[in-house]
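Regression test attached.
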Amino acid sequence: MESNPVEHELALEMEDTVEERISVASQRQLIWWRFRKHRVAVVATAIIVIFYTMVIFADFLATNVPADSEAFRGLMPPQPVHIFDGWKPSPHVCAVSGARNPITFQKDYVTDCTEKIQVRLFARGYEYKLLGVIPTDRHLLGMSDDTLRPEDHIYLLGTDKQGRDMYSRLLFGTRISLTIGLFGVVLSLVLGIVLGAISGFYGGLIDNLIQRLVEITRSIPSIPLYMGIAAAFPHDWSILKIYFAITIIISLFAWTDLARVVRGRFLTMRDEDFVTAAMLSGANQRRIIFRHMLPSFYSHIIAAATLALPLMIIAETTLSFLGLGLRPPAISWGTLLQDAQNVQTIALTPWLMIPALPVILVILALNFMGDGLRDAADPYSN
Amino acid sequence: MLGYLIRRVVYAAFAVWAVSIISFFIINLPPGDYVTSYIAQLAIQGNIIGAEEAESLREYYGLDQPIYVQYLKWMNQIRQGNLGFSFEFGLPVNDVIGERLILTMILAAATIVFIWIVAIPIGILSAVRQYSIWDHTFTFFGFVGLAVPDFMLALVMMYFSFVLFDFSVGGLFSPEYVSASWSLGRGIDLAQHMIIPIIILGTAGTASLIRITRANLLDELRKPYVATARAKGLSEWRLILKYPVRMALNPAISLTAYILPFLVSGSIVVSVVLGLPTVGPILLKALVAQDMFLAGGIILLIGWMTVVGTFLSDLLLVWADPRVKFEGR
Amino acid sequence: MQTPESESVVTEQDTVTEPLLSVQDLQTYFFTDEGTVKAVDGASFDVYAGQTLGIVGESGCGKSITAKSILQIIDRPGRIIGGQVKFSPDGAAVQNLLELEPNGPEIRSIRGGEISMIFQEPMTSFSPIHTFGNQIIEAIRLHSSLDKIEAHELAVDWMRRVGIPTPETRMSEYAYQFSGGQRQRAMIAMALCTEPRVLIADEPTTALDVTTQAQILDLLQTLQKQNDMAIVFITHDLGVIAEVADIVAVMYLGKVVEIGPVESIFSSPKHPYSKALLSSMPTIDAAHRERMPSITGAIPHPQNRPSGCAFHPRCPSYMSDICGLKEPELVSVGTDQQASCFLYGRD
């Protein structure tokens, strides 16, 4: 089509600057712009970032060694941090002392706020290696050295039956639960992408077979199967072995969603012009799949992976909760919640339920984030 | 339609076979064979079994033969309605499972009914009044409902009913009905006890069904046939209920088939937490004790149950969507 | 307004009758997150009994929205924000349809009753999971007091009238069991079974092949004669317009830019856009290997409606002193022919 230059200029003048910006933006920028509009998803992403930061710096954030147990201070209530002492800023926690009730033989704890334990940032605590390399004994929060008495202690979220610090245990439980999900997603991504890509790219008999496999895997209740397989782990396996074994089982059943997404994308994309162009120019199939097709929907894959992550976390938590997944002394959200299994415990020591909060928060945030990503992954959908 | 039906039957048969393979695989997972475990169990009770007797037991179960022969023997046994012997309970597996399987099925079915009754009207409302305060509220609760794992919901419900109402949730029957035979009273008692488990189990499914119904209805509302119906002079609600809602129900039916395995999974965990007399708690007990015939039997039965349920909802789709009959999708 | 006395004086040949449907200065805007889209921005035309008004224009010019606005069946986020749709069926009092409550009983009795509509996509315009019979009977029963059996008979009768063979058995069939042409016939049966005074046909033949298209046009014209019905025929196909329309309205970006009898519009179009549109039509006597003329530029994005005359950036007769600054009004440019262009008067 021809047009005279004067008109062309006029038409250009008409063009909105916004439109121009959109037309030159890269795929990544477009996705980011759309994602940013999704406020809830942005907040959710921030929450996830915070949680994974906690995973990395669990030692630094902890106040006590998570495995340190002392029966005489079991089931101690939380000691919240008070920032002000009257009007004076002086961060402290109240001392808690316990005595056995002579009639019920229960341990009764009394919070005594006249006795204040001073709290400071970057306090000295137990020794550890920051990021696994730098040896240090500084922790984000701890008791001030100068006023410390030997009987003082700080249990921000109380203690469990064995007198272990719930707060520190929760941090280490978060580390295990969140990384197990991450490894699981990576594993099922590999399975899902390979099988989904084969299915969608080749079609025909192979596609049919893989689709039936997906269908059947999906139509079988997964928890009983996880339970069945997890129950067969030998009792003498190390925590690490069980950790990886669980990751593998969970991803063996969780790849189907990803495979569906990948296959669907491949099917629609197989007929796109740029794929035909690549084929005509003699690119081999592997190159077409990995250079041309996969990059064009990596955003969809990220979204699908984000949505698969909470399922993994739930699976691990559920298994460990039932006593078939990670077993003590391993700490995960599931093993922490095992202590909260019966009504009496919950009613008398409600702080044992606290690990439920991060589980719900993280799973919600991952769902919102994945949803936002999925919406943003289609920058041209409007 | 015939093509569709045949395909569905073939898939179902294939799934039935796959479930049996997986169950058999799980039975054989723990180290040592069944007879060794059995003999060890008997030894604890003081019964020593001689090597000869052990050998004849092994022969009976086909443990001396290749694995596929063992599988076939096991399947043959199941064909005769015999799931084997549970040494943990000292009873045949059939007797251990007994009523529990029926209660599991009743619980799953009742939850599906609950999900439909709650989710469909809410989904319709959310779509028709898109971006209204109701829509936002339900969308948010939908997310929360999806995010909270079943067992945690059970814990939270248990906590609140104990703290607020001083009522402890648990079991499916009042004490006087636990071992009574079926009667109207027992049925009513069961229904009352099922309310909380159904809410716990149904929350995630309800949330996803609301989302699916809302999304599909929003899609359908934009379709030309809605404009046609509107141009005919139909009133808005009659129109919505007759056309787009009816269309949006088809994916909802498909979703039911998809939810069912999750429901069964969830019922296992929730039953453990709430102490419901379904197959859940005994599956856990069997697995912990490595009583594999019992565990394998339960996994096999709930797997098959799910396959049948999925198959039924596929059939429902044929009835609901005339296009399936002709296109044979 | 006409009095009964004057009506008796008017003869058949005189066209001084009141229009059946009169659309004046219709404005329908879409309020989206990205901004307001003025889909219809001041469209006006009259439709008379027994006549066909053709509305023609490129896609996106607001033809379909105009049609839907008449019956107030605009989807969100669209809203009719101004104008009048006057409807006076056969001597009844003039009623402004836009004043009726959007989903109230009055407008609903007119929708599908006195004013029916048929759509472009006969496949998707029928519910895929309800039988034709069900959907046609529903239309009949909404606008009459017939019982189910009578309505069924009437529906079968109409299926026969629109030329669907073995209507009795086809009543219980679904949209995907019909061919495209038959679906459009069924759609016509559904629209006409209530004997409307006005039929709005929104691109009714666009999705059909040429032979079927001709059959459907014939059918519409036959049925129009039988009922003395008015048709508003919306299309982008000038060939179809030439065949069916008595009056042609040319729309560009939500406005009627030219309106007049079909012969005048085709023989001497006045508005530069009409001229351009008509010259882009392939003709059989065009010189061999001649390049087909086309309108330069593309339709502007609806949110970036050009100032002044919306056509000015693409107009070959663009006058820099006025076209981009002022909006032209419709002015008389011949017998019954009006165009909105400053070439024909600068006020």
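Expected vs. actual: identical. Chain A is about 60% helix and 15% strand.
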